[in-house]
Amino acid sequence: MKGNPSGRGFATRAIHAGQAPDPRTGAVAVPIYQTSTYVQPEAGVTVEYDYARVRNPTRDALEQCVASLESGAAGHAFSSGMAAISALLTTMRSDEHIVVSRNVYGGTFRLLEQVLDRYRLRASWVDTTDLDAVRDAIEDGTRWVLLETPTNPMMEISDVAAVSELAHERGVHVAVDNTFLSPYLQRPIELGADVVVHSTTKFMGGHSDSIGGVLITRLEEHASWFRFIQKSVGAVLAPFECFLVMRGLKTLAVRMDRHEQNTARIVEFLTRHPAVRKLYYPGLPDAPGHSVQKKQASGFGALLSLELGSFAAAKKLLDRVEVMSLAESLGGVETLISHPASMTHAAVPAERRAALGITEGLVRISVGIETIDDLLGDLEQGLS
Predict the structure, then answer these.
(1) Angle at CA of residue 339, ends 338 and 344, nearest 5°
(2) Which of 297, 363, 367, 308 is nearest to 150 (CA)?
């Protein structure tokens, strides 16, 4: 396959794409090229590698792999998910406008509202599940529509194909944060999006041991700009972290299957529990985005949120769980449980959180791959 298994199955590409055996030693795993610079053969001759901020063979391998998995033309690895989103937004100029899903990760909200507003980048926060709302929000200066689907933590589902068609009619590009589902379950470029964003910290890496982000592009105009930003700004993913993400990707398919199996059992348990006032999960038949999710993805993911009615009830659960870990982040092999209002979305003003449904009684769970009976028992004793 020589590291470029085009046309092969997802799991095969996750293991082999961009990862040909090392030509010098035959090593199966891509080496960690832990170097800052490269010797030039002679002056005045352009070479493939000259400085590690610009290119690194380990990073090249990861970027080729994620591009293959997301059906994109090119991949670009950054030092965090927020660095990737920041790079995406460097395509905008002062006074240009972006339409964003109203219920995104708190860090994205903070970046746009507290950092980039200083540079006169304008954002409209829209219910992107409503096509009319998206259409009405697009104006002459709109450059991007940025979707997060499912949203964090309310699990709202946007129709990627429909939004992309609408936006492209107006000359607007579409980016999708696909962190919650991973390319195993959803591939936005195949649905019409122009750019896909991931925090590789989450399901792609899968082991809660590295921080990173990637952009996958469909168009050369975006690919060339992001390569320029990597070189000019320098927030690139280090070789060792690239190695860790590639190691995680090799098991992404089998992990996601187990994540979803465990999630289905937990959802079944929570829907019957009297302490749970409301459950947010797109796999529920009566969930608002259920039909759209079935159309555009091959699964429903491993994230869910539950409303317990008060901070006291939420705190009781969070304090009592023993197998689940009270921590930010998601997508690791271990089950993580969190309180969005005080953790991931603390940067969002209280009145805005309330309008979005992010209450003091809301708890988010990222379901891991532990023995399911242990997870169910942990929830049983935590909610009793």
Answers:
(1) 85
(2) 297
Q: What is the average per-residue pLDDT within 67-94?
A: 98
Assess contact for 383 and 275: CB atoms under 8 A. yes
CA separation for the pair 177, 182 (Å, rounded):
9
What is the β-pairing status of strands 142-148 and 97-101?
A: parallel
What residues are annotated to the active site?
53, 105, 177, 202
Domains, in order of start, for the chain = 10-249 (3.40.640.10), 252-383 (3.90.1150.10)
pLDDT of 166 strictly over 60: yes
Rounded to 5 degrees, φ, ψ at 307 are: -100, 120
Q: Identify any residues that bridge with 278 across adjacent strands, giving them in sequence order.
A: 307
Q: Give the integer Cα–Cα distance in Å for 323 and 379.
A: 9
Q: Look up the pTM and report it.
A: 0.96
For helices 57-69 and 239-249, give the axis angle rounded to 10 degrees.
30
Closest CA to 78 of 222, 160, 252, 198: 198
